[in-house]
Amino acid sequence: MFGLDADLTLLLLLCLLCACVFEFINGFHDTANAVATVIYTNSLKPVVAVIYSGLFNFAGVLIGGTAVAMGIIKLLPAGVLTDQDLMHNIAMILSLLLAAIVWNLGTWYLGIPASSSHTLIGSILGVGIAYSLIENIDLAQGVNWSKATQVGLSLLISPLVGFTGTLLLLKLARRFIKNPKLFSEPDKTATPPWYIRWTLIGTCGAVSVAHGSNDGQKGIGLVMMILVAIVPAKFALDHSTDVTALHREIVSISATLDKAPASLLDNKNYLKARKNLAHLDSSLAGLSNFNGLNAEQVQDIRKSTYDASSALAKMNEDPAVLVAMPDAHLGKAARKISMPIEYAPFWVAVMIALCLGIGTMIGWKRIVKTIGEKIGKEHLSYAQGAGAELVAATTIQLATATGLPVSTTQVLSSGIAGSMVASNGMKNLQKGTIRNIAIAWLLTLPVTMLLAGGFFALLRFVL
Prior knowledge:
Layout: H1 6-40, H2 46-63, H3 67-73, H4 80-83, H5 86-109, H6 116-135, H7 145-176, H8 194-230, H9 232-235, H10 243-258, H11 268-284, H12 295-316, H13 319-324, H14 330-338, H15 346-360, H16 365-374, H17 382-401, H18 408-424, H19 431-459
C-alpha cells in the first residue's frame, strides 16, 4: 500500500483506523447537540432525528472545505512530523489519537457534553510539548504557539457568544412574539404546530451541517497528518498542482519583495519569506509536477512552502509592512503559494464524512438527556431549542469560514444555558450540571495533554 512494506502498511492502517474511531466517537458524542431539541419537543422521533442529523453531518463534511483542517495541522510546526524517525512520527500520531479517544469515550460514558475540539487540540499540544522535552529543544519548535493561541481564543470566546447570543435572542423573542405556546413546556404526547415543528427541524439541520463542516474537518486534518507523516512522498504535496504556475507566482512575489523599502530589510518575516522563496525558486525550476520526487525532496519543498506562506501571511498582518508595501497583496500571495500543502484528497473527506455520519446515529441518548433536562430547571421550550440552535449554527459556520475550530458541544450547551437564564434568571440553571460541564471544560486540555504526552513518551521507545 503506497509502496510501504507490510509492517508500515499495518501501522498506517492502524493510525487511519484510530482517526476513523475518533471521528465516529465525535459523531455520537456530539449528536445530542443537534437532535436534543427536536426530540424533546416531539418534532421528530429519535430514530428519524439521528438519521436526519447524520445525513446533514455527512453533507457538512463534504461542503466544509479544508481551512479548519489546515488549522489543526498547523498546530505542529512543519518540521515536527518530517524531521523525526518514521517510527517516532507514528508514535506521535498514535499517542494523540489514543488520548483523544480515551477522553471522549470517558466523558460520553458519564453523559458530560465535553468538547471533542478541546480533546483533539489538547492531545496535539501534548505530543508537541513531549517531543520538545524529549528532544531537549525549545518548546516553540514542538508547538506552533501562535496558532495555538489563536485556536485557544476561538474555543474560549465561542461559548460566550453562544450564551450571550441566545440570551439576547430569547429576550427579544419574548418582547416581540406574543405566542405563549413558543415559551411553554412542550406537550409530551403531541407534535408541535407545523410552523414550530419545521422551524426546529430546520435549526437541527443547520447545526448538523455546521457540526459536519467544522468537526469533520478536524478528522480530515488528522488523516492528513497521518498521511504526511507516514507517506510524505505521496501526500506531503498535492500532486495535481500546476508546478509551472506555482513557480511563476514565487518568482513574481520574490520580485515584489525585491522592491521593499529599506525599513523592511531587517524585518524577521521579510527575511524568512525571502530565504524560503529563494529556496523554492531553485527547487521548482524546471519541474512540471511533483511526480518522481523522493520523500526527502517533497518534505523539503513542503517545509519551505509552509515557512514562506506563513511569513507572507504574518507580513500581511503587520501594519508597518502594509504601510511600506500597500500594493503587494501579500495575503493573496501567501494563499496561492500554500495551495500545494493545504489540500485533502476527496476520498479522505468521504471517509471522514461516513465515520461522522454513522457515528451520529449511535450513542446519542446519554448526552441528549443532559442537554434536554439537566442544564435548566425547566423543560426545554420550542423557543429555547430553536434559539440556541440558530445561534450555535451561525457561530460555528462563521468559525468554519475563518478556519477556526470551535466546539459544537460548548457553543450549544452555553446557548441552552443562555436560554434558561433569559427565561427565569440564573436561578433557572441546575448548578450541578453546569459545574460538571465547567469541570470537564477546564480539565479537558490539561488531561489530554498529559495523556498524549505520556503515550508518546511510552510509544516512542516501543516502536
